Amino acid sequence: MAGLLLSPTEKVFILHGVQDDYRSDGRSNIDYRPMELETDVVSHASGSARLRLANTDILVGVKTEIDVPKPDKPDCGKLEFFVDCSANATPEFEGRGGEQLANSISNMMQKAYHSSQAFNLKQLCIFEGKQCWKLYIDILILECGGNLCDAVSLAVKAALFNTRIPFVKAALMDGGNIDLQLSDDPYDSKLLDVGSAPLLVTLCKIGDKCVVDPSAEEENCSVISLIVGLTGDRKYYYPKDADKQQSVESKCTTIGMNGPGSVAPKTLKDAINQGIVAAKSLDEALGQALLKERQQNIGIKKHSYGFLK
Amino acid sequence: MTGHVSIRLASERVNACVASGSELPRFYTPGEVISGMQDFMRGHGTYAEDDCLKASVAGVMQKVNKLICIRPLKSRYVGEIGDVIVGRVLEVQQRRWKVESNSRLDSVLQLSAVNLPGGELRRRSAEDEQMMRKHLQEGDLISAEVQSVFSDGSLSLHTRSLKYGKLPQGTLIKVFPSLVKRRKNHFHNLPCGISVIIGNNGYIWISPQKHDLMVEGNVDEIQNYDMQPVTRSDRETMARIKNCIAALVASKMMLDDTSIMFAYEESLKYELVKDLLDPEAMLDIAFLTQHRINNIMEE
Amino acid sequence: MPLDYRRFNGPDDSVSYKRFTDNYLKSYDELYEELIDKNSRRKDGRKLDEARSMCMFFARTDLISQAKGSAYIELKKTKVVCSVFDPREIPHQNEFSQLGQLYCEVKFAPFSCVRQRRPHAPDAEERALSVALRQALEPAVCRHLFPNYQVDVFVYILEHDGACLAAAINAAGLALANASVPMYDIITACSLAIIGEKVFVDPTEAEEHLAIMSPDTEGTNHGIITMSMMSELKQVSDFMQIGSMDVQCVTKVMEILEKECETIVPNIQKVLVLNVVQCFNQRKQLEAEAKEREAALNAKMEEWKKILNAG
């Protein structure tokens, strides 16, 4: 937020607070503010989620389409990320104002989901070399109150968890072309395996230490932030087949820096380790919330709470 | 070392509404007829049409003799002479500072309306004009009093008292100005060792209590003092008060020293300050505070 | 995206003919086999931990005479040109900005890549590289010295054979220094590719391609890391990672990168110092020539004076 101005004494107060591991609202350096999550909020999307983190509000919709796979990856589907910074969030986003921010976020997401260890694109394959699913993940930023990357990655993972892809009933080969027959029943569908999908953690360097989930004031005190993408753990999302798999260590799928400053190599290492801790607790909390919501809606048609208080 | 993350579901969303003891006032919406034209005068938030007085904003009616105003629920701060405000210096101009004060137009602090170091009222020389940035620079927070209101509604401030002026270390919370109760005193030293300035403009400043040793110190000493780290216990109390105010605001409760202190006392049952960020805890505190206020009112 | 009608655009779904060659159809394992021979040497004869800059660092400045500063860096088949232009007022901006700004643009030549023809309009990768380049350069430049000004940095990648971002950052750092833009430190960058246990320092395009591809076996580390550093200040100005690897791997690799970045510094310094020496020599020569001319002129004058006096 460029419009924010802070006095030197306020900055000193925040700086000492971070040094003391006790921030101005009582959080420690690795605590997140409470979040609110709802999946399946958009009726015309295959999967959707809305996440609210303090003032940041993210809505994600997943649309599925059929496409031809890339020639060098015949057995993989496609993922496409689009970020839209709505001018509703701040007037600065009007016109092309939010474009740069939107590009950098979608770039980050694309990189984070690149590896097959983060998200296995093979589950989007329909017919090798001929047809595959293409997921359009549209991210809408409705309100922006800092820490966008983290919120976006959480919302995307929740939306993918919620995404249903129809079963293919039959495929007819017709002279090289393929005719697919899909069922009309929306419940005749499969869910995606997104347990290992990555989460982004932004670490804001203030003084010598880094904090996660910075408030707008804290972001103002920092000249550089580090964004780390870390894979999730399947056991939080699919506890039923947990005994089959051993717990895997989370892996870095992307690292990037943002801001005009620079960091010492040691701080960088510490920040990455701090990011792993934060990502793990994020992942666990997200898994719990998603499973709980699924549990609540078994058998009954989901009641959508949407945007009304 | 594990981070604290809580993700709630929308189905667990709490309604932050706290029923207050008093009856709800009549609420007007834009275009609604308030009364006939004959007996009343047209005030802010109303307009006349077809011999009727109609509301132009959504809000509650205020009647002073024959003057009818509709006060909107969410509005920017409308200043009155004598109000205490907290504001932020935006710009240093010729012989004055521009101060952001949550009102429609930026306020003005004249160079002649501040106490310059040296104490008594002395003539402002050209040298003082050049030193303005040393006194207050862009981004600095000040507490001030509204000296006069210009015809266009912008405010002229003054800090000609020791209690006003540049603010030391602390945090600022912005709330709706309509939630701040008008009181005689807006500077409070709470019994928990924290001082709070509840600005009429909805800016609330929380800082550790000042120690008296530095009233007559020289400038360098004060500056040094300003940069000292705040102690951990003060910091915890400040964070608790900040979260309590946020809880009260979420439930749209009026803010003054009593309600803040009540909320603070009620919040002590939550051991960790960060637990107060949870919406349920916030509602709990707001509810208990309202309960105590109701009890006092009954007595 | 708006189509450029003045240029010939190939059909949308055309593919490179190389797709149908044997080389293309090789499996992951075959490609992996190819990268290293039995003596654990790479295709171009380097060892795994040997950067291209080690055996032959080729760089020069003042390639583009009209720019304030320019640099050209060649790492075998990766060739990069960079030019830096004079500071100018930031266009379309009405607010005063205390710090000067850097405008960076990275562009691939249409014929620079092995696998595809680069489109004329900037694509997502180029935009991402531009952002990364700016991120890497910004901390090194004393931006407070030219408030409200913008310095343009243009990088053109003529040939891309891996590590193009690192090459671009090195070239841009050299060009900035050549343009005498005030800087805190020389900025250098290095990249490496990780495939399983093997770490390829300064990878070629083929190595990068394989590192980005996801291996079939679960849990193997793979990916590319690019890091840029200000070696004297021991500060990392940009760190880019893609792929999937555990933290131990990242931290281990960081040390290698740090060392590599430091080894490039003397090379850059050498180019800069040579420049100064050359400049100095040139000036000396010019001065000597000027003196010679003056002496000749004086002699002529004397001659004419004599003639005049005699006449």
UniProtKB/TrEMBL annotation, chain A:
It comes from the Eukaryota. Transmembrane segments: none annotated. InterPro entries: ExoRNase_PH_dom1, ExoRNase_PH_dom2, ExoRNase_PH_dom2_sf, Exosome_comp_Rrp42_subfam, PNPase/RNase_PH_dom_sf, Ribosomal_Su5_D2-typ_SF. SUPFAM superfamilies: Ribonuclease PH domain 2-like, Ribosomal protein S5 domain 2-like. Its main location: cytoplasm. It is found in: Cytoplasm; Nucleus, Nucleolus. Gene3D superfamilies: GHMP Kinase, N-terminal domain. Residues 32-166, 198-275 form the Exoribonuclease phosphorolytic domain. Keywords: Cytoplasm, Exosome. Belongs to the RNase PH family. This is Ribosomal RNA-processing protein 42. It comes from Chilo suppressalis (Asiatic rice borer moth). The lineage of its organism: Eukaryota, Metazoa, Ecdysozoa, Arthropoda, Hexapoda.
UniProtKB/TrEMBL annotation, chain B:
Residues 76-148 form the RRP4 S1 domain. It is found in: Nucleus. It comes from the Eukaryota. Its main location: nucleus. Transmembrane segments: none annotated. Keywords: Exosome, RNA-binding. It holds the Pfam family KH_6. Gene3D superfamilies: 2.40.50.100, Nucleic acid-binding proteins. Residues 170-209 form the K Homology domain. Residues 27-63 form the Exosome complex component N-terminal domain. The keyword Transport does not apply. The keyword Mitochondrion does not apply. Belongs to the RRP4 family. PANTHER family: EXOSOME COMPLEX COMPONENT RRP4 (PTHR21321:SF4), PNAS-3 RELATED (PTHR21321). This is Ribosomal RNA-processing protein 4. It comes from Chilo suppressalis.
TrEMBL record, chain C:
Its main location: cytoplasm. It comes from Chilo suppressalis. InterPro entries: ExoRNase_PH_dom1, ExoRNase_PH_dom2_sf, PNPase/RNase_PH_dom_sf, Ribosomal_Su5_D2-typ_SF, RNase_PH. Residues 58-182 form the Exoribonuclease phosphorolytic domain. Gene3D superfamilies: GHMP Kinase, N-terminal domain. It is found in: Cytoplasm; Nucleus. Belongs to the RNase PH family. This is Exoribonuclease phosphorolytic domain-containing protein. Keywords: Cytoplasm, Exosome, Nucleus, RNA-binding, rRNA processing. The keyword Ribosomal protein does not apply.
